[in-house]
Protein 1
Amino acid sequence: MWIGLINGVVIVYTFKNTEITNKKSSEYETKSMLYLMGMHPNSGKVEIVIVDCFNDVTGVDDNFTLMLDVQSKNYATFSPSLIGQSLYTLFDNYVSKFNFHDYVLFSKPLNPNYLHDSNLRSFDYGNIKKNTQERIEKKLREVIIKNHKSIDETQFIQFLDEVTFFNDDYPCSHYIKKLSSFKSKSTISDLTYGNIFDEIRDKQSALKNSEIENETISTPKEVLRLERYITKLQINSLIISRIIGVTDIFKCNGIPVDFMIVINEEGLTKDRDLLKDTIQECNSNLSRTLFDKGTSKKFWQLSEAIIKIVRESKSECVYELYDELLLKVKKMPPHMNKISTQYLISLVLQGMDNDL
């Protein structure tokens, strides 16, 4: 919430009513976080998601020039009165001095009788029927007047025109699939996707263990010092690590057994420093390819192709698998040279041994 001038100096944002939520609420907050990273129209710009500070989740770019605010609700029955009440935190941010760029109410599908077109998954306030709007606005006005003592009707109507409603009826696995960008969704089992979702949910929930009640900031970027955020880089790292079956794909915690044939063939066993440099270069090339916006999709496509070949091939030889890959993938991502690709093949082979 916002408070007035402090000693005539600056208006600050004060965090109020932060909470620790139950498992079902956490699931919806995680869905809404992954929606911001992979399904919102501006997902390509979202690099950080702030958790339970401005709202349930808020997606931002690196410089906080984009702020997407989300309130998530998992009510089985979402009445117009509850909708109005749930819109309040979004309204509170709308009237703040921080510049938010979208206000999203993320929930289970609204009652079809409330809507002009119930087939839309994402829609604006105009898709809600007049009689339902009246009941929503009645409750929202009550909450605003209770907290703000008065209401600016022009501002009130302008806010409602800015709200996006997102009706979620997807399984948890869908949100991980959208981020992984695999074309063939059968490449990885839904159980694996579900386990990844649960791990992300637990990491997100753990951020709420810190106490931030009554903390204040004067610029949006200051929220980072509260350490309640997750980056897209962290999420993508976790997803690809779990899909491939390696604890942390980008940390050089050992050499994959199947990569030893490459090490011997390239004569790297004779020069320890050169071996270390090569492994570091392979990890760097994987990281650059995944986290470069221009090549990230190609990284997922390459990983998918390797997983498919490893599963279907009769060979477990890195060189033979690499040759098979070249028949399937005509153009490699820029940073993925031969040895880096063979290293990735070795990681996938290792992951298959872990029974992914």
Protein 2
Amino acid sequence: MSYFEHAGCQLHYEDRGQGEPVLLVHGLGSSIQDWEYQIPHLQRHYRVVAIDLRGHGRSGKPRERYSISQFAADVAALIEHLGLQQVHLVGISMGGMVGFQLGVDQPQLLRSLTIVNSGPEVKAKSAADWWMLAKRWTLSRVLSLNSIAKGLARLLFPHPEQAELRAKVEQRWPQNDKRAYLASLDAIIGWGVRERLHSITCPTLVISGDRDYTPVSLKEAYVAEMRNARLLVIERSRHATPMDQPQRFNAALDEFLAQVRQTQPQPENKDPQPC
């Protein structure tokens, strides 16, 4: 296990394989385990780096307010720690928000960006939006992590043949630190960088499950505002696309990364620092 220190927090990461660096960023309440079906696949051709964001997984859980900007700064610090010039960043859900934030703050660090079931803002724009966010905020505080895990498992993986995936959520989710989980949820609500999307010029692939929480039309709208982005919809998929459709997801990511490698010059990365 590898760790480094940034902004008062010990952060855990994994670093496997060789080649161009692909950096994986998980979602809210999750960890590097989000990518169990991607890391072995990607490391055959790439150097795969995955991080546990502060408050998650094996990383530290400081008792403080969290923010998407802070998460993005942690990711940037890892890129610097490893001596990487640019990375292909892949982020799911909250990890996609971190990708957007890093893209507008430090676009020079990204060779490409893959956003999975996410968006550039979480802001209420209607009464229905306010109700949905207030309900989520309240239930997250009232319910135990075990109860949240069971409800989330049924929502993400409702089919009988997905029993193993449901069991993984029910087993992993209660391992969260409740205070850190709530601090991370608070970091999401009200966040947004949509007005700065023009700052992201690297090739961007937005992947959406056809049955994700947010409709495909919302992704189509923000993709149209970006300079170099396209949308891919994966059928029979909900919010955890890398887990419920791993083969289709991996193939789409392979194709996108290969296209970027063919059309974009490759920066020369520095020698990695000792861990």
Protein 3
Amino acid sequence: MTKPDQTASPTLLFYSYRALTRLLAPFAYRKVSAKLAAHGVSDRRQRERLGHASQPRPDLAASASLIWFHGASVGESLAAITLINRLHSRLPGNRFLLTSGTATSAAMAVKRLPDCAQHQFAPLDSSAAVARFLAHWRPDAGIFVESELWPVTLAAAKARGTRLALVNARLSAKSVTGWRKKLPTARFIMGLFDLLLTQNKQVAEDLLSLGADPARVFPSGNLKAGAAALPHSADLLAEMRAALAGRALWIASSTHKGEEETVLDAHKALLQDHPDLCLLLVPRHPERADEIGSKITQAGLTYAQRSTGAALTPDTQVYLADTLGELGTWYALSPIVFLGGSLLPIGGHNPFEVAQAGAAVLTGPGYSNFIETYPPLIAAGGAKEVCDATELAQAVDLWLTQPDQLQNARDAARHYVDEQSGQLDVVVDRLISSLGLHMPERAP
């Protein structure tokens, strides 16, 4: 394979970063391995973060490719799996590798990856770990999802001749400002990619301002719209419906510190007109459950905590779902979902997962990570924006008391997702052409 062209040279800052990550790698590994161990990940799999593979490289037919995808966590990995499935249907015979950094994404990958793919934890962005990873897997193409710009990994892969793409690209305003202060290094990093597909025109303009080649940058929409719906447990769904016994339910999902107070105030207001209403509260970080439980008690509300096995009873006003991997079931349980990370300037969370489950969306104004998604979704009627507890309570009350309006919102959300998912075929076409992907040759 010929070495692809590179539009800029490495900088002193890049070399300094590479040297620093080499020195800090043992300390970084100690931290990330402890996190993985806390989630029950074996020692052998933890060592994947040092580039030690726990699985063999797949045997490939003549001219077949190993196509490597990387996504930081669950959301990015789901988008990657969507593309893996589409690419495999177009290019059968090629194989796929998905890397990510969290135990949750690894557990999800085991359940959702097709047989043509396998998962590994991503190597730390240090020379030795990356070298071991690349020497074992020898990927022909590397596709990075959203904002995972690891300089050592990208430069080492490019040096080996791996063709690289950044898809579903998004950069926060803070990240763009930071990169502009390091423009020569940003230009070097941008030049490593053969293709850059962004979530919207603004991100495309930001990448161009950082030195990306205009011939390689294309806005392509948000790939999360095309991801398969989150899986749900039919048994758990039936169990919860039986426990609710017809009680109305609304969901506050992926809430962050500083948001639960607003949600609880809204729920207290709603209880005045809907005394049997139940709130299913799903914190973004389940380890905050004790803190959130105290807030619920201070608000004068009763609650049951899922992780302790407490039952949802007729007296339960808040069900604290402090567990992982059950979000799809919760979204299938109620047609009204408030998505956190948005009442504060955090960036918001993925509305496509909610819409795919058949629910309508409520969000605060702080959805900067989905700036290309929420305004048209709101305009279409599939979502409503609220700013405080009063507006949140009013929005939930409207949908509880006006089922026709709720159904219209659910239909609009679903329709919007269906429209956006059509971008996937365009993305796949660009990946195939820009990365030189092709059908493997058939054996004679």
Protein 4
Amino acid sequence: LYHHEHADGTGPFQKKWNEIPLFARIIHLADTIDIIGNNPGSGNNSWNFICQFLLKNKDGLFDSECVNAFFHAFTHFESFTCLSDNSFEMKLWEIIPRQKQVFDWKTCKNVADFFAKIVDYKSSFTSRHSIGVAEKAALFAQYIGFDSINVQKMYLAGALHDIGKMAVDNEILEKPDKLTDDEFSKMKNHAGYTYIILSEVEDFEEIRDWASFHHEKLNGKGYPFGKTAAELNEPERIMACIDIYQALTEDRPYKKGLSHEKTCEILDDMAQKGFVDSDISKKIRECFGGI
């Protein structure tokens, strides 16, 4: 919120440096440096200009604490330009070691909800899609007899199933017209990105797969992996159906959500064509019929 504030109180909220959170002040300095020339191959001129700019605006745009910390971290041009090479992440983890942490259900749910909201609000077309999928996936899992742990896993998979859309341009996500073949190909990549992102979380293999395979079809014509019926387990089949159900029933700026009955008819038709599991489609009709 405060990353455009100035140390002297001349920013949008007129807060002075001692009223601004430290991390906001750091982001403000880094953001400005990036704008005025932090790019690969910019050379010594960029470094000299940045140094002069920071010193000139010390206690004006930037507080002394952050400016001094910058010059402590980057003592010369070479140390500054190392940020643009491939060793940056390795160097970062030398300073800040990775530590494995185990979180309880409430914490995991809060984190998953946080990312779900970021993804959903990235596009006006999907303002509550991920949370809706999460809630319905958990409700359905409970309805068919999953134990509490797997109900929770289904919720997390639903909340995170579209996290890969963070890597897709909004021009594609919000295009009101039919996507071109190239645009649709990029859109399809989002499920693959979900797989890659969730692969970074230890012990998330099941949740990763349940989340990432939501566009797979039983006949092998889904994406991005082209999984077949033999390769898709029950939770993965459920997630595919719930994603479709949620997308069809929710209101979007360009359409009114379909009724439960009409949506179930579409799912039944997809089941007959070999796209989704007919047994799950039938149980969705029962589970959500009274909502």
